[in-house]
Amino acid sequence: MKTSSLSLIFTHGSQNYVERCPNPTISGGCCVFQPKVQVKDNWGWCNGRCPGGPGGAGDGCYDASQNPASTGYPMNECDTGNMNAYTSFAGQIIVVPR
Questions:
Q1: HSE of 74 in the Cβ direction (CA atoms, 13 Å)?
Q2: CB atoms within 10 A of CB 53
Q3: pLDDT digits (tens, 9 = 90+) for 74-91
Q4: What torsion do the CA atoms of 53, 66, 34, 55 make, to the nearest 10 degrees?
Q5: Looking at the DSSP assignment, which residues form a beta bridge with residue 17?
Q6: Which pTM value belongs to this model?
Q7: What is the end-to-end Cα distance of the chain in Å, rounded?
Q8: Which of 10, 23, 25, 63 is deepest in the core (most CB within 10 A)?
Q9: Is the Cβ–Cβ distance between 10 and 80 less than 8 Å?
Q10: What is the pLDDT of the chain when averaged over all its residues?
Q11: What pLDDT digit, counting tens, does each position of 13-55 carry?
Q12: Which pLDDT score, from 0 to 100, does residue 88 have?
């Protein structure tokens, strides 16, 4: 039986702080985040939009590094540095400093 795995990568910084919070009920500044999620299956496919890849129309991204027989495609479209290989949360997470 194959075990499943879960990876969580979380990065943030002071660049998320805004002087005028987008929520009108909050006076002063706040931090605004828009999380992105990536799900990758055991065949090397992940969610996202990677045009020109093996998904054809761009629905999905592929990690060809898992399959040595895959030629002609970028090595790993699911790499954490490829922001197209994620699905953005439709809203915003707002954190108010104390």
A1: 15
A2: 20
A3: 678 888 888 888 888 899
A4: 20
A5: 31
A6: 0.62
A7: 48
A8: 63
A9: no
A10: 78
A11: 556 888 889 999 988 899 998 888 888 888 888 988 887 655 4
A12: 86
Which residue has better confidence, 98 or 28? 28
Residue 24 DSSP SS3:
coil
Residues in the chain: 98
Residues 6+ apart with CB under 8 A from 80: 9, 38
Q: In whole angstroms, what is the distance from residue 2 CA to residue 57 CA?
A: 31
Amino acid identity, residue 34?
Answer: Q
Place of tokens 């399959």: 67
Q: 3-state secondary structure string, 81-96?
A: CCHHHCEECCCCEEEC
- Residue 72's identity, in one-letter code, is G
